[in-house]
């Protein structure tokens, strides 16, 4: 029986609200055993870009990470947010260690190839991206790695990388050494059958049930890529994926996804 | 015979000049054995503060780190500069790991007490500040720690901390486990007898000779606090302190300070 490793991913919404962030971190402290936190960005970087008069570069509705944008997102994600989270966890006795993918070469990405759109300095991950040996060593030393959404290409270039992708790639890579629970935390209590009814949380969804719910149109829109990604992680060996409210991680309400 | 550990400190001048920074890092890669790099700030943070219209807070000629300033210096030091240095070293095969003092609780500071001046969010270090157990573990794992000049107070507060102080505190704390060589790198070739003559480098200074050179006024002004600090480190068990040009670390020209 492998040791359980819990990987939590939080998004920009909670990063932007310091009291919510502090509440979440206080709840995270109560989670026992080895754990990893992956945090997304938040609006701070965009606000800074606009204060500096740097126009967001958009192509076909997608934001492009040009060099000036990369500089600012690196400052926010790897500097401000990551160090704030680490310091707040240290204050509560969690031995947090902030990491970008470049630190310890822990996540090696490749710059997204230009097809129809040049996304700029954006990193894609693959099966070989994660330095599992070092991560396992850090976890065994009692450290709690805190990942920001910045990786590198191994050639000296930092890359902006989707935090959901980082979380699921870490989960898949570490599934060989741990029974991994991957927790996607957001502002809803779980996967809802009715988007307007917070009490309609589906407690448990298997891969088979997911296909049926998708076919019926019960699960649609924004949840589909998230859940496709989650079931792909389960297929790749991740033990459990949980979709839950970032403010209720220690409460029973949540959606647990499992293979069967 | 203890293993040799080399600690390098570079200042803001070289951080501000990317081609010089790359050159220094290329030379650092050639330094064998366990090593640590401590980097200072550079002008980026001040320029950003002025672009954002945040006035530098000065009291009696000393800069005050208020909350807005701390935010920006954390972004620059721990975010932009630290991650850039880490990524550039990774590209040359050095397994660099960027750290603030909060990461792994590796440097615990105390907020400078208010006497006549309130310096704001500035951290002071002491004999107990360094988590030597974790640092030794990281070094033994083949990692090269890269420190920025940000620490924390263990209560959730990040603190701006002098990079020279971080370097000498690390050196003193690790002197129990390693024969520590502490390298202060700057824009001169070493300690000069004539500030205007770059060829007047004193190759070696003992504690006794230093007192004489100070008394004669040969060493004066800005070098005195730097060298007082260096000789204090030697007295506390650091094996060697070297004062050298950041661009000539692999050349023989330098000043070696030693107890006797």
TrEMBL record, chains A, B:
The keyword Disulfide bond does not apply. Its main location: cytoplasm. Substrate binds at residues 41-42, 63, 160. It is found in: Cytoplasm. CDD domains: AAK_NAGK-like. It catalyses: N-acetyl-L-glutamate + ATP = N-acetyl-L-glutamyl 5-phosphate + ADP. Residues 7-245 form the Aspartate/glutamate/uridylate kinase domain. Its EC number is 2.7.2.8. NCBIfam families: argB (TIGR00761). This is Acetylglutamate kinase. It comes from Hymenobacter volaticus.
